[in-house]
Amino acid sequence: MIGFWTLFYKELLRFWKVAFQTVAAPVLTALLYLLIFGHVLDEHVQVHGVRYISFLVPGLVMMQVLQNAFANSSSSLIQAKITGSIVFVLLPPIPYGAFFAAYVLASVVRGLMVGLGVLIATLWFAELRMAAPLWVLAFAVLSGAVLGALGMIAGLWSEKFDQLAAFQNFLIMPLTMLSGVFYSIHSLPAVWQTVSHYNPVFYMIDGFRYGFFGVSDVAPEVSLTVVIACFVAVSLLTLGLLKRGWKLRA
Amino acid sequence: MAAAVSIVDVVKHFGALEALAGVSLEIAEGEFFGLLGPNGAGKTTLISTLAGLVRADSGSLAVLGHDVVKDYRKARGLLGMVPQEIVFDPFFSVRETLRIQSGYFGLRHNDDWIDEILENLDLTSKADTNMRRLSGGMKRRVLVAQALVHKPPVIVLDEPTAGVDVELRQGLWQFVRRLNGEGHTIILTTHYLEEAEALCGRIALMKQGRIIALDTTANLMAAHPGGSLEDVFVRTMNQ
Ligand SMILES: Nc1ncnc2c1ncn2[C@@H]1O[C@H](COP(=O)(O)OP(=O)(O)OP(=O)(O)O)[C@@H](O)[C@H]1O
Ligand SMILES: [Mg+2]
Fold it and tell me: Which CATH number does the domain housing residue B101 bear?
């Protein structure tokens, strides 16, 4: 257990020591989105009966939770692999389950910190309602964990930074952007609505938004089930790779 | 009683290259053992399979009777390894690095021992310096320190003195000898043959993934009267 706590603590310290880049910068990015899209569209658009700027906030928060959870585990692993400092965690007797848990939890913490930062900053621009805070928390934690685990897979798989960037740009970005961060899928043509239902990130954001407004495109229980199923699947895959020492132990 | 290290028929390929071509070796507890050979002989590969960084294609390895694959947690807990390449985590100071490494081995409140290691490796004044700000030789000393945080019964040093100044080299050997005197098994690779001659009780010479000579240092030297270990090395390699 001490091995796990130490690794978790090290992973927290790693991003906290550069919090300006890892926490403050993504909060600023989200605020820019909010200012630009929020102000341009606020007067013209209402979604689920709420003002667009209010509708946008949870989407942006969740987007940053997801992207930062992914960034945390993936960049930590790729950096350690490229610099060789990965040996420090490969030599000790840390069970692979503890290894997994430490990286994923640290990713969740970073995701939540950025998400909370965005939420607090947006209080100046839009009033905040939270119809069901427990749903908000559940979706934030579980979705962060899914992306943290995906980040581990990406970090293990990549051998160079550009491979990781490709993973991020061609998989993670499209999945989050096309998931309903900026719109309700009901405003899409029927075909794209159907396609959106195959995107797990759609359920993360839709369920998260339910926690704020009490309304959503899909029933929150369904979304939660999908997110839990994703977490189980991605975790099992990651654990399997770690157990084999895939791309870690030659 | 189990050997400190027991290696049986270990084979390892990297693609078409046979890095280890069936290596068997037994090292008893308390030995000061030298693993010598030219660049690319397979020394680091052998050590890495022992530490679980590299997986053998076939054969088996054990540390104090614990198989490095089946019983990996025990085996790793008993082994301390100084890697050949200088690597470091740029986020942390020397002390943070050593505390974190202790934690990975399940140890809390290890500061007394950490202080002692720092003292012996002449790093006390750098304890709170960030790793990035250390010189190359100092970084290597920290690597040695990291390998010792959990007082491992078996210590593997892969060229620990490359790039380290004379004074520290002597300090390091004094410290390692003391650990050996206290019962720690030491396995050393080095290209400084005088060091091996002075320190090691037994030596294996490797070439192209094989052990081609294995004996006590005294016996190896006796086979070539009047020569140094370097002469023995050169002649054995050219046989
Ligand atoms: N990860 C790897 N991938 C491919 N080939 C490798 C890898 N590691 C080692 N090798 C090859 O295996 C052989 C043995 O290398 P090894 O590092 O074990 O040699 P060594 O005896 O430690 O040499 P040196 O004295 O230079 O440190 C070399 O031919 C090397 O190129
Ligand atoms: Mg080597």
Answer: 3.40.50.300
